[in-house]
Amino acid sequence: MANSITSHLRADNNLRLENWDSYGAAPLTDIALNTADLLHSRWIAMPTNDGGVQLELHTHGIDLEIEIGPDGKVKIEDIG
Predict the structure, then answer these.
(1) 54 lies in which domain range?
(2) Distances from the Cα of 7 to the Cαs of 11, 14, 15, 41, in angstroms?
(3) 47 lies in the same domain as 68
(4) pLDDT, tens digit, for every residue of 26-56?
(5) 50 and 37 fall within a common domain
(6) Which of 10, 38, 49, 76 is the most exposed place for a label (fewest CB within 10 A)?
(7) How far is CA 19 from the centre of its chain?
(8) 10 close to 31: Cβ distance less than 8 angstroms
(9) Are 55 and 25 in contact (CB under 8 A)?
């Protein structure tokens, strides 16, 4: 999956090893990477009436909205 949101993670083979962070981290899995790419591809972006941007994700029982105000402040809301 070239140019996916997870490309940099896929390219780092050290993340596939046990204890990659020296604190006992589990290896990164293809299932987690594929799901991250799938969710990323389903975000919808739209302008808000105050000059900001709203991001929405509605998939697989997830209903999430992220509002980025014109001042850059972020508000996250789980509407599910």
Answers:
(1) 42-80
(2) 6, 14, 12, 14
(3) yes
(4) 999 999 999 888 888 889 999 999 999 999 9
(5) no
(6) 49
(7) 23
(8) no
(9) no
